[in-house]
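Form 7-S
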Amino acid sequence: MSSSYSQGNKNASKRPKNNSGQQIPPLVPLPRRQDLNLDDLRGFESGRLDLLWITPSQKLDDQFFTEHYASVASNIKHLVKNLFRCGDLPPDGSVWAATRKYHGEKFHLERIVGMVARPDPMDPTPWEDLMTSKAKRFCVMRAVIMLVLEEQVFSELLFGATKKQSEQLHAQDSDYCHDGGIRRSRLRSTLVEMMLGHSHGMPQCFWPSVDKVAMRLLTLIFPVLNWVRRTWPPDEDMPDIKTVYQEIHNCLAYACWFAVHKQRASSVLEFTWLHPGDQYCPDQIELCPAGLQRALAASTDASSALGSNTQNASQARIARVMICVVPRLDIIKSVECDGEAVGHTITTLADTRVVYYLGLMDPDADDEALLLSGVSSMS
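Output:
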């Protein structure tokens, strides 16, 4: 019995051979890079970006905000390309599973992604494709960062204000809530300038506020960051957690500086986001035109193959917003006559940046296609 068992065990241990008669080595799991750890940031003091705080109020014109808003968007684009490049190893499971495991039941990142992006329901794995495709992943993460800035930085009455200053600004805004937005903005800018005059132009809590926003953003994108890093071999040179945080900190510091000057202006700066699924408009700038052209070509080929008179012919299609990457920026100014406001002008300083998908012409049918595909939410 012992001999028979030994012989069977010996045969079972034999590995298969290739065409050359050589044994095929056993499959071993691909080595994965160790995840970053937020605890490694304990005690770390980030460097501070050198910013100019003495810009005269008369310099806060259309050109100023156009140029610096473009720089904010460019900085985010550069940051995303640095942090979210995938390596040669296959992704380690679903990115959405990773975010759920990290964020728990809040699904905070998924909420934000759902506000700025919507996959093409005709894709085989729509929500996964948003993150596994390099071009789409870059655009999704750019949109996420921009929306965080719009919600947590640009919407502040004065970013970096002290608690007392913030209360004063909100009280003033509440007292004049029935006045027009331009009049409130002009009144607010006067108070903001007075506050900044006591701190050489920089809000007193500017840097602590930047620290908080940078840590919030890092925590938000952390599971995606580690998911991407696992596609890089362990021996690949990659930035550590402190370098990653510093890059985020620098990018956000500039955006927060822009936000302070936004509130110094007497005019109203307004951000407009397109909704995922919205129809194409000529004033929108497409960031991934090649993807849309491929979809158009595939749709045309399919229609030609089916024939225009068959019941199975493809439904009419139109470009719809897949990702709203950068919101439109408008500046609203008062028009006065003899010292009295008689109207206002709206000037677009930056057009919307978007990524399209080829959706159905009928918006209700397009929504239904998303529901029928079973991808109305991340899964």
